[in-house]
Amino acid sequence: MEQDAQMTDFGSESTTDDVLDGVDLTGRTVLITGASAGLGVETSRALAAHGAAIVTGVRDPAKATANLAQAGLDPATVDIRPLDLASLDSVRAFTDGVLADHQHLDVLIANAGVMACPEGRTADGFETQFGTNHLGHFVLVNRLAPILGDGGRVVVLSSAGHRFGDVDLDDPSFERTPYEPWVAYGRSKTANVLFAVELDRRLQGRRIRATALHPGAILTELSRHMTEETMQTLIAARGERTMTFKSVPAGAATTVWAAAVAGAGDIGGRYCEDCAVSPVIDDAVVMPGDMGYAVDPDHAAALWARSEELVAERFGP
User: Fold this and answer.
1) Is 179 a catalytic residue?
2) Region 253-268 average pLDDT
3) Which pTM was predicted?
4) All structural domains of the chain with their residue ranges
């Protein structure tokens, strides 16, 4: 899966087409969640344009079909399946179907998610953002990991928003903590990074590497709950006066870079942004970088154990 590329070849303005120029993915199968809009559609388009077969789980298959077609991808060539990450029954039904119909995956991209939404609960009673962004993907990835091939990749979309909060293993669903949308988002995005860290440790023996990444600030449907007030809160928390947004092709570039171009040993267990591995930082307003608590291996192992407890399912080493 690994291609020959220098870690410094690309940057914040690189697009998916820049990153995948000359890359042949013929014969590779990529599963991506949320390929019905925004980054998911562009990631699917770019990978398919270079020969990859795409499997996707989406809440609205009809919407995915229309948007993939509009992007120039023949929906008939994409395995589009219903998936609601806010329901573990749906996640398990989706993975059962994939396992029945597919014997092999090369890349698994945990792309779907929600951001800064009003307080709510998933079908299983978890806080919406933690339950959807982390626990849904935690179960999905682990149930599909057995069919990831030697040299495969798991790419987990996190966010610079992980700076807004560390995971709270004692109160993951804000049952005792006052709910704040950005703190909840931050916790879920920190969980995404920690999941990749522990998953990478567990899968290295099979030459499968996992990484998490920040795609950048992009105006997509993910920001559907954004108001002027929440936008200003976000900008202030980042230590900025204004925010610069990437195009969708530039936003998806780090995903395809991590999935198909970057060196496996360089990105395994790490956090990436702008098509590069980010430094570990301890100041939430320093950009780029990932907070130390998000890549702490002991913290990652503790989250894994707590997640298994919450979803009532244990996964192999």
Assistant:
1) no
2) 97
3) 0.91
4) 16-308
How many residues in total does the chain contain?
317
pLDDT recorded at residue 316:
82
Q: Which of 179, 185, 271, 293 is catalytic?
A: 185
| 146 burial via Cβ count (<10 Å: 0-12, 13-18, 19+) | exposed
Q: Which pLDDT value is given to residue 32?
A: 98
16-308 has which fold?
A: Rossmann fold (3.40.50)
Residue matched to tokens 């567990």: 202
Q: How confident is the model at residue 1 (pLDDT cuts 50, 70, 90)?
A: very low
Sign of the Cα pseudo-torsion (273, 275, 279, 285, in order): negative
